[in-house]
Description:
The structure holds two protein chains of two kinds.
Chain A: H1 3-12, H2 19-26, E1 42-43, H3 49-76, E2 79-83, H4 97-102, E3 109-115, E4 124-130, H5 138-141, H6 146-150, H7 178-181, E5 187-192, E6 195-197, H8 207-213, H9 244-250, E7 258-265, E8 274-280, E9 292-297, H10 307-333, H11 345-348
Antiparallel strand pairs in A: 2-9, 3-8, 4-7, 4-9, 5-6, 5-8
Chain B: H1 2-8, H2 15-20, H3 25-42, E1 59-62, H4 66-69, H5 89-97, H6 101-112, H7 123-155, E2 158-163, E3 166-171, E4 180-184, E5 192-198, E6 204-208, H8 210-213, E7 219-222, H9 233-238, E8 242-245, E9 257-261, E10 264-268, E11 273-274, E12 279-281, E13 285-292, H10 298-302, H11 312-340, H12 342-351, H13 353-366, H14 392-406, H15 414-431, E14 447-448, E15 462-465, E16 472-483, E17 486-488, H16 494-502, E18 519-521, E19 524-526, H17 542-554, E20 559-561, E21 570-572, H18 576-588, E22 590-595, E23 599-606, E24 612-624, E25 632-638, E26 644-650, H19 652-657, H20 664-679, E27 682-692, H21 694-709, H22 714-725, E28 730-741, H23 745-754, E29 758-762, H24 767-776, E30 785-789, H25 794-802, H26 805-833, E31 839-844, H27 845-851, H28 854-866, E32 869-873, H29 877-891, E33 895-899, H30 905-910, E34 913-917, H31 924-928, E35 931-933, H32 939-977, H33 989-999, H34 1002-1010, H35 1016-1021, H36 1027-1030, H37 1037-1059, H38 1075-1096, E36 1101-1102, H39 1103-1123, H40 1139-1144, H41 1147-1174, H42 1178-1185, H43 1206-1216, H44 1237-1242, ...
Parallel strand pairs in B: 15-29, 15-33, 29-32, 30-31, 31-32, 33-34, 34-35
Antiparallel strand pairs in B: 1-8, 2-3, 2-4, 4-13, 5-11, 5-13, 6-7, 6-12, 8-9, 9-10, 14-35, 16-17, 16-28, 18-19, 20-21, 22-23, 23-24, 24-25, 25-26, 26-27, 27-28
Helix pairs in contact in B: 1-7, 5-7, 6-7, 7-33, 11-14, 11-32, 12-13, 15-32, 15-34, 17-18, 21-22, 25-26, 26-27, 26-28, 28-29, 32-34, 32-37, 32-38, 34-39, 37-38, 37-41, 38-39, 38-41
Family (chain A): Belongs to the CDC50/LEM3 family.
Region (Disordered) (chain A): 1-23
Main location (chain A): membrane
Amino acid sequence: MDSSNAAGTSNGGSGDGDPAAAARRNTKMPKYSKFTQQELPACKPILTPKWVVSVFFLVGVIFVPVGVVSLLAARDVVEIIDRYDDACVPVNMTDNKLGYIQNETISKECTRTLTVTKDMKQPIFVYYQLDNFYQNHRRYVKSRNDAQLRDYKKANQTTSCEPERTTADGKPIVPCGLIAWSLFNDTYIFNRGNENLTVDKKDISWKSDREHKFAKNVYPSNFQNGGLIGGAKLDSSIPLSDQEDLIVWMRTAALPTFRKLYGRIYVDLKENDTITVKLDNNYNTYSFGGKKKLVLSTATWLGGKNDFLGFAYLIVGGLCIFLAFAFTLLYVIKPRKLGDHNYLSWNRHPAGR
Amino acid sequence: MSSRIKEMMRVATARLGGEQSPRGGTSQAGRAEASRTARLGGGGGSLRRQPQPQAPTVRTIYCNDREANAPVGYKGNSVSTTKYSVLTFLPKGLFEQFRRVANLYFLMISILSTTPISPVHPVTNVVPLSLVLLVSLIKEAFEDWKRFQNDMSINNAHVDVLQGQKWESAPWKRLQVGDIVRIKQDTYFPSDLLFLSSTNPDGVCYIETANLDGETNLKIRKALEKTWDCVIPEKASEFKGEIQCEQPNNSLYTFTGNLIVDKQTIPISPNQILLRGCSLRNTEYIVAAVIFTGHETKVMMNSMNVPSKRSTLEKKLDKLILALFATLFTMCVIGAIGSGFMWEVHNRALSRWSEMEVLCSAYRFCGVFINEKYFYLGLRGRVEDQFNPKNRFVVTILTMFTLITLYSTIIPISLYVSIEMIKFIQCAKFINNDLNMYHAESNTPALARTSNLNEELGQVEYIFSDKTGTLTRNLMEFFKCSIGGEIYGTGITEIEKGGAERAGVKIDDDEGKRSATAVHEKGFNFDDARIMRGAWRNEPNPDACVQFCRCLAICHTVLPEGEETPEKITYQAASPDEAALVAAAKNFGFFFYRRTPTTVLVRESHVERMGSIQDVAYEILNVLEFNSTRKRQSVVCRFPNGKLVLYCKGADNVIFERLADGNHDIKKTSREHLEQFGSAGLRTLCLAYRDLSREQYESWNEKFVQAKSSLRDRDKKLDEVAELIEKDLILIGCTAIEDKLQEGVPACIETLSAAGIKIWVLTGDKMETAINIAYACSLVNNDTKQFIITSETDAIRDAEDRGDPVEIARVIKDSVKQSLRSYLEEAHRSLRSTPGRKLAFIIDGRCLMYALDPALRVNLLGLSLICQSVVCCRVSPLQKAQVASLVRKGARKITLSIGDGANDVSMIQAAHVGIGISGQEGMQAVMASDFAIAQFRYLTDLLLVHGRWSYLRLCKVITYFFYKNLTFTLTQFWFTFQTGFSGQRFYDDWFQSLYNVIFTALPVIMVGLFDKDVSASLSKKYPQLYQEGIRNTFFRWKVIAVWGFFAFYQSIVFYYFTAAASQHGHGSSGKILGQWDVSTMAFTCVVVTVNLRLLMSCNSITRWHYFSVAGSIAAWFLFIFIYSAIMTSFDRQENVYFVIYVLMSTFFFYLTLMLAPVIALFGDFLYLSLQRWLFPYDYQVIQEMHKDDPHEYSMIHLPERSHLSPEEARSYAISMLPRENSKHTGFAFDSPGYESFFASQQGVGVPHKPWDVARRASMKQQRQQQHTGRS
């Protein structure tokens, strides 16, 4: 306890045995490790001019070719877009489009003629495009029940399907919810001259959806039976997994402007071919001022007509190469010796703190 | 054992200090009140008490009678300092957690997210919140467990308790009020005790109160005579007293009570009370009765929780969080308005179609709406409030809440827990384990007692340092002397060493290299064979040497103790200087070994004949004592042969004034030597003597006796009489005592000053001593302009002589006011004329009291902030705290206090960061501190290395957190605009909930632990780097704005680049990607980018960085691969089922994944490159300067081999020393009685008075005789 006494005796006598060993046992000296002494080996990157210029240059060198390739791919795609929502309204009803679409007695048939601008190799993808349609609205997105779709035993599960859960007499709707209820129901029939171009509607949905999210033994029931009809009706003899239009529709889009795959045409189209589209203009976009478009498009390995990626790559790549030169210039114009004492703040303002 | 006891003392955590800390006005006032009463009472050693307000009831204790005490139900002696018990842990711990705004916020969000208005599943917020709470609770539990173990070890310490007629050992916790206990030497008192008897005669015992007040000098307690015989158990068992006393209270220095024995009532004073926390010294054992136990002891009543300090950075962080709340609110308001009201504007615009067309299309683009026309939303009929188009206002309000839940990620929930974890590891692993801060001699590593303040260490601008024990070792060592114009002693002081190092000379001071003749013992550290052990007789001036040694051996007020041999004897002196001087005389061959009331016995080895030893008795006729006005001390003694000599020692100026004429040479050389000693930081005294004739003496002695017996103005008259004889002195020489600085102090102070830190010395010492140390620490040097405000002026002294306290106060106040004003002007003037000049401000405690007056405070602060160094001397503990908080609050600078004693506690608690010096007795300062280090010099490492790194790291961590959460949340925000403001979530619930706690959690912690801008040695080599912290360069709004800007930019990149993808078919199958595909792609980009961004901002990248960054990204992919491959049986939407596989089947995904991060980081990279090149930070320049240095390992030190022999090297080094003479001659001498300055203020202890020396000598003799007689 009394340290001075203890020190005194241990200095005097040698009876302590090995004091060094004892000291080592009692020591509170921290053990050395690279971790605790914060001496872990580390790489210390410094953004020297060499690094800056090389990084910019490298990015440029990689990005420009990628951009060129993607752009070329996108350029090969031929796309025909036809907006038909306005054009298909009879002339006498243009002031009352809503009346037109809601009046079931008026025939919704309509014929459009498209001219192929460039040779199109099969397969040709048929899309419909909707504008100002909020498939991503919160009320809309959650209005479905996945359990019901993949298990016939769970047909009664209609939670979260408000307001299209049950029929007026309380029977569950399959498929329930707003998404299914508002299924798109325009149809297209394509003719080149007299030749009918068959639209293949198989395999337009993702396989995972078809096989796992929509069951083979679930059939539509009570669907579109209410007073208000939202959209297409489903054949209740076909299982959901085969209702590909529904499956496509139910993979909700991210933006209010979106395309959905309608089908494929396995026929090559020639430049200046004229294509007649006989369509049933059933779907109501008039009430909310949405547009409907029909799109015919080819695709490459990258997909449809999308210049965006190619340009982005090209611009960024170009910018990087430009910056590589710009920085080289900067380092020449405004040179600074690396690690120059004079740049230390206390050397710059010696008087100041 | 001793370490465990120290641990025990932890219970007394706040003790005195808690009471002193100027937290509330009331406690301050209370404290002042207490000390005033104490001082009044303690003046003459007798204790008069102010009447204490009596508690309504009186405690009655029946000693030695457990049954009688039982009905009262006193509390046991076990103490508990834990915060929680097993039962209360969960509720209380959770309550503590939810006191944090962030946690409470997330609790609210979690509750909100269970309601239908929430767009997200509760899991999104519950998972991160519970993880965060879990980690925090585990930490709390761990800390409380450690506290509990500590309590257990204290409660289970053993003490002897009287059982029947025997002493039986029992643990402390079993102790009960009324028990009789036996305390052995050097053990601690287990509770508050009534002292009954002691093995010492006179019923006296000595106690050490270091744990209470930091005083290391022993205090005397005396038992009541009635109980003296209770020493043996038989007697003690017969003792049946009844104690009536006050109820437990927290006043340490008062006690009211009576002991009723045999129907006799004896009053008990604090003199019989032994407080828990003190320890018994120099007494074999004592017997005492327990009066207060456990939490009712005075020390525990004093203990309150040390106020937890929060770092300035964290306070600023609060502001950042507030700003984030504001951002969140703005975002929600925008969204809410969009959801409810945009439509109306849109409609109205439609009605005035023509002029509003442009505006309309803009609104159309924004989307909007709750309106029945969107038939697919099913808004007809009964619709829940959230979407009911008939009540837009409700829709708006509810959407607001929806969006708050959706954007909740903008507040980084894991930020606090990450910071806590980082800081905890920084403390536990880095600071506590730093070998550079381990002190081998005292076997003490550094200790971080709180982990709240690591980064505060990187921003300190003002250091308040105690002197004794902190800067100095409180060891006075005789170091050099000058006799008859010749310097003896070849040592080198720390100051000289510091100077030499600055000049580039390296001096090794290993003990092994010292010359063989060097002697080092307590009070004596001298290396010069020429005068050791009588060798001086061969010197050219032996007579002077004889006089010199005799003067040292006779002229003092020291008492020898112990065996009368040179090896064993110890000297008891009122001041350590005196002991050092006597020890020097001993080593020179004049061994002072005994004092009787009238004589001093000296064993002289020498004089007329070589080698003979002779005991000489000098009769001491008069002692003319030392005081601060006289600055000298004299004795008149009669030699055995009847010769009368006056020996005098004192400050150079007072001695030189009184020298006889002639002998100018020796005066001149002595003065030069004095200056040389002064510049080396040594404390000097001049020695002189005068032969007296019998007539001279007798006529003078008459006057002296008269003066001594006068009743009025005795001190003044004595001084006047002394003047009459202290003249015509003959100078013998001078002594130089080293007030030994702690190792490396000057160098450390030098480094800290270069780092832009200002160091203030606050000391209870006298002004001379304080200035001397300021010189020694190179806080003050010859070029420094000094502004001194002292109460030792003639005007004030005159006022004091008149004795009217109101008048004195007025005079002092006026003089302080005037000097402050004039000094301030002068300082400004000097600053303008010579900007580089150092200024120093020195003030004593008495003047400081007035200067701290609110009216003068501004001037005081103004002046002190201009000056580079400030010295406050003779300040009380309270004033130390006041000064610290003056700077802390007044100047809003970050302050640090460092000290070792109880008198520093208040200052330690008042400053932002408190540092205690550990490894010595007295743990009070350490207990109150935030960090404990063994040596002052470790401040360099603590501040410049650990503090700076912690600051840098935390800044980086916080700004990065801010960035990553903002980026993430903003992508959500952009999405909101395209969902008709419905509040649809962009990401899957689990993405959002795991974003903070898994996918981006670990790397940032690695940065918080390992990032280093420059190595530790460079941090110390370029102390200026520290200024980046003082200026708070890395956590300004500007820095945050830059991060914010890039977060904004990146979020746009992520959202729009991936959203663009949904427009067209992808891959050769022509199939379309849905919303969840897009969001998964965006999330992948976000995770990859924020992790890479972190890597980009690292200064050093260890393998842990690689692991954690790669691990985090891999964790995301692993998660999504598994998550999207399974379907769960829960009722939930399978939105992301198979998404990643769908994505990975397209080239588009890979191209985007490569493009988005590169474009996102492009901006940051450009910014970093430009910033580094055009406006480099200091650390970046230093990095560049040392970029090719090999990796350093501090442990690898190659011993430098010198071709010189040690002696040669040493003498060479000495010759290389800068020999600059100082104008400062270094006089400093601790005035006797000063040691108990605070003790006397507090009213306990028996102050040693020098004039007591004779009486003490006689008393001791009696005691020794008694001893020998008994044995």
